[in-house]
Design brief:
Layout: H1 4-7, E1 23-27, H2 31-41, E2 47-51, H3 54-64, E3 68-72, H4 80-88, E4 98-102, H5 107-116, E5 120-123, H6 128-183, H7 189-220, E6 229-232, H8 233-243, H9 245-249, E7 254-258, E8 263-266, H10 268-284, E9 291-299, E10 302-309, H11 316-322, H12 342-353, E11 358-362, E12 368-375
Parallel strand pairs: 1-2, 1-3, 3-4, 4-5, 7-9
Antiparallel strand pairs: 6-8, 9-10, 10-12, 11-12
Helix pairs in contact: 3-4, 6-7, 7-12, 8-10, 10-12
């Protein structure tokens, strides 16, 4: 029940606060109207707030940032049209959807509401089912718009980092080539071999980045077909360790594995990419003379695979950022090897397709363990 006390407040929450629920603000100077609207809107999974006039509405919106506003047109002092005009002229509030509620049903009033930026117009007295349908529709549209905007921001940031890393890698390669061209007669054989080794290492890192980028792009457009089959995990890990021996040898890092031979049910190409990225990352962030180890352990109906290193480790804040969608991680290795975090993003996506889980355990200066789960192969 709406009481006189409500009018003295800038906002009256009509239900328990829950940040995960959308917030709908009702703006109406008639308590009975607010009560009727509140009774209907309790059928929507949301939190409700109330402002009894235009000035209260503006103060409430500046703090609360509701997801949808139901705004009465005819109010004293400041009518709904003026409230809408002020909201739409403010960058902080211009994107909040507004539904006008009014007994004024002349076409000029309706057109004015839409010209001011409202998303809908409902005439009083309203039909409850119609009101609920429109409210749910606009809440859904706002949620979809928010997700789309977040995805655009994420991808813009993502490609900004990728382009930066690619320019940096090609810039290094070109500078080394230019150094060789301009000083070929004055450089010793040892110096030339060192430069060629740096060029090879940078080129391999750049190729790995491009392969990961293409893999990620195909995964986002469903261009990678998920084809799980029975695989011998021990054989697969040994294959990866053999192909990774050269990058580990360059840093005098020991590669070791203790993997059970029981078959798993997985996509071979995806699993190869997952191992290649995790082992490459472990080597990258482990100082010379360190160790990288692959282990397995059985869980209920699945196997847990761990890639552990004796590297630099990470604090909890860094670990918490690694798998977030607002991808911003770009960290060089212990010998300034380029890093961008794309490999982990791709691993997360492929593990998700296997219906598995992935996680990280790390302690600064005491190494990191990245683990993931895979389903065991079951005979029919």
């Amino acid at each position: 029940m709406i009481t006189e006390k409500t009018k003295e407040k800038n906002v009256e929450l009509m239900g328990p606060s829950n940040n995960k629920k959308p917030v709908i603000l009702i703006v109406d100077d008639v308590p009975k109207n607010v009560q009727v609207l509140g009774n209907y809107l309790r059928k929507v999974d949301c939190d409700l707030a109330v402002a009894m006039n235009g000035h209260q509405a503006l103060k409430t919106i500046s703090r609360l940032k509701p997801d949808l506003i139901l705004l009465d047109v005819m109010m004293p002092d400041m009518d709904g049209h003026e409230v809408c005009r002020r909201l739409k002229s403010n960058d902080q509030t211009k994107d909040i959807p507004i539904i006008f509620l009014s007994a004024k049903s002349e076409i000029d009033d309706i057109i004015k509401g839409f010209e001011l930026g409202a998303v809908d117009y409902i005439a009083k007295p309203f039909i409850g089912s119609e009101l609920l349908a429109r409210v749910r529709t606009h809440l859904t549209l706002k949620e979809l718009k928010g997700k789309l905007e977040e995805e655009v921001r994420y991808k813009n940031n993502f490609f900004s980092i990728i382009s930066h890393d690619l320019r940096g890698s090609f810039g290094i390669i070109l500078s080394f080539v230019k150094l060789l061209q301009n000083n070929r007669n004055s450089l010793s054989e040892h110096e030339i071999n060192d430069l060629l080794g740096d060029i090879e290492s940078t080129a391999k890192s750049t190729l790995n980045l491009l392969e990961n980028l293409l893999g990620w792009a195909r995964s986002q457009t469903n261009g990678i077909r998920f084809n799980p089959v029975m695989l011998n995990l021990e054989t697969l890990v040994n294959e990866i360790l053999k192909s990774s021996a050269d990058i580990a040898e360059n840093k005098n890092i020991e590669l070791d594995a203790s993997v059970h031979s029981q078959p798993v049910y997985a996509d071979r190409n995806m699993l190869l990419l997952i191992f290649r990225n995790l082992i490459s990352n472990a080597v990258k962030f482990t100082p010379e003379g360190g160790k990288v180890r692959v282990n397995t352990a059985f869980l209920n109906g699945s196997v847990k695979v761990s890639v552990s290193d004796t590297g630099v480790g990470m604090d909890p804040e860094m670990v918490g950022k690694l798998f977030k969608d607002d991808y911003k991680i770009s960290t060089p290795g212990t010998k300034n090897e380029p890093g961008n975090g794309l490999g982990l993003i791709l691993c997360k996506e492929f593990i998700r397709q296997h219906k598995g889980e992935i996680g990280i355990e790390s302690v600064p200066k005491n190494g990191t363990t990245v683990w993931f789960t895979l389903p065991l192969f079951k005979k029919e």
